[in-house]
Amino acid sequence: MFCGQCGTAIQPGQRYCSGCGRLIGTAPVMAPQSRLAGNLRTLGILWMIISGLRLIPGVILMTIFQVGASFLPADVPFFVPALVRGIGMFILAAAAIGFFAGWGLLDRQPWARTLALVLGFLSLIEFPLGTAIGVYTLWVLLPADAGAEYRQLSLSDLAR
User: Fold this and answer.
1) What kind and span of H or E run contains 135?
2) Per-residue burial over 6-32, b = 16 or more CB atoms within 10 Å of its CB, e = otherwise
3) pLDDT tens digits, residue range 51-60?
4) Phi and psi (nearest 5°) for 16?
5) Is 80 a residue whose pLDDT tops 90?
6) In 24, 62, 69, 127, which residue has its Cα 20 to 30 A from 52's Cα atom?
7) Distance between CA 77 and CA 75 in Å, rounded?
8) Helix (H, G, I), strand (E, B) or coil at 23
9) Which structural domain range is residue 39 located in?
10) Does residue 78 share a domain with residue 17?
11) Same-domain pairing of 28 and 39
12) Domain check: are 87 and 147 in the same one?
């Protein structure tokens, strides 16, 4: 049991908190949630959402720009539809990797923090949504104490 005001551990039978002097009630108080634990689920969900949004242009580019795209003018070089389809495949691959990172964060997989950090750095150049999720990812997962806490969370989930 922990003090609801300062978070100091309370011993059984103790009436006052040794950290702040607050009177301890009969109802048990949960430990305060850390920044990482409080934001990890939100971060995983946001990676899934942004990956879903990335699917839209990827699918559009893959379906509209077929090799014999009839809406293109006749003077367009032959490689343009294949190049645009390649860009669409790249966007679909990025979306799949983002889904994978989001699922890993939600499931607290040990590798997911590293993957999300790499994707967070890469997303910074994608203004505005990519920049926002990149900054949020780095804010949640980059601090040194977040690494140790994430390892502890993933190990405790593996033990279950």
Assistant:
1) helix 129-141
2) eeeebeeeeeebeeeeeebeeeeeeee
3) 999 999 999 9
4) -125, 145
5) no
6) 69
7) 6
8) strand
9) 35-159
10) no
11) no
12) yes
* 13 and 58 share one domain: no
116 contacts 40 by C-beta, under 8 angstroms = no
Number of domains in the chain: 2
Evaluate whether 124 touches 135 at the Cβ level (below 8 Å). yes
Provide the mean pLDDT of the chain.
86
What b/e readout covers 102-136, taking b as 16+ CB neighbours within 10 angstroms? bebbbebbeebbebbbebbeebeeeeeebeebbeb
Q: Residues 105-150: pLDDT tens digits?
A: 999 999 999 999 999 999 999 999 999 999 999 999 999 889 889 9
Work out the angle at residue 87's Cα, subtended by the Cα atoms of residues 82 and 92, and round it to the nearest 5 degrees.
Answer: 120
Residue 66 has pLDDT above 80, yes or no: no
Token pair recorded at residue 134: 């990149």
* Residues 117 and 58 both lie in one domain: yes
Taking only Cα atoms into account, the Rg of the chain, rounded to an integer number of angstroms, comes to 24
Two structure tokens written together for 31 = 């430990």
